[in-house]
Design a protein that fits this description.
Layout (H helix, E strand, L loop, with lengths): L2 H16 L24 H10 L4 H15 L7 H6 L22
Length: about 110
């Protein structure tokens, strides 16, 4: 890899590091306040896009790159981005705390 290619890759990683998922399950509604960073999206979610088509524009291009990096087992390339941003972002479905049980009929 030449110095120019390294610099291009650093710029690309910087761009990936700033991009958040703007819609869907991992968008701001599901992962407040800004959505999940695209480098932390699950491989299954990226594979779904790969099969059905990535979104148009720069978001789609970056998602395709992240998908390719994860497909070849190089997810650790995103570790410096995670460290700089406070760690890996995970998605947890919030379950209701209140439980309603049927009356026992006593």
């Amino acid at each position: 890899m030449t110095d120019i290619e390294r610099e291009d890759f650093r710029n690309l990683l910087g761009e990936i590091g700033k991009m958040r998922m703007p819609f869907g399950k991992y968008g701001p509604a599901g992962v407040p306040p800004r959505g999940m960073p695209i480098y932390d999206l699950p491989p299954e979610y990226l594979s779904w896009f790969k099969e059905r088509g990535f979104p148009k524009g720069r978001l789609g291009e970056l998602l395709a790159i992240v998908c390719e990096i994860k497909d070849v087992g190089m997810d650790m390339v995103f570790d410096p981005l995670r460290e700089a941003n406070g760690g890996r972002v995970t998605y947890w479905v919030k379950r209701p705390r209140e439980r309603n049980f049927p009356d026992s009929g006593e």
